[in-house]
Amino acid sequence: GPSFKDTDQIKSNHIAPAVYNIYKKPILLHQGHMQWLYDANGQRFLDLFGGIVTVSVGHCHPKVVSALNEQSNLLWHTTNIYRHPKIYEYVEKLTSKMPGDLKVVYLVNSGSEANDLACLLAKAYTGNHEIISLQGSYHGYSSSLMGLTASQCYRMPIPVPAGFLHAYLPDPLRGIFGGCRDSLSQVPGSCKCPEDCVSSDKYIELLDDLLQNSIPTGKVAAFFAESIQGVNGAVQFPKGYLKKAQALIKKNGGIYVADEVQTGFGRTGDHFWGFEGHGVIPDIVTMAKGIGNGFPLAAVVTTKEIADAHMRATYFNTFGGNPLASAVGKAVLEVLEEEKLQENSKHMGEYFVQQLKQLQSAHSFIGDVRGKGLMLGIEFVVPGTKTPLPVADVSQIHELIKDMGILIGRGGKRNNVLRIKPPMCICKEDVDFTIHVLDKAIKMYSR
Ligand code: PMP
Question: What quaternary structure, including any partners, is listed in this protein's UniProt entry (predicted)?
Answer without folding.
Answer: Homotetramer.
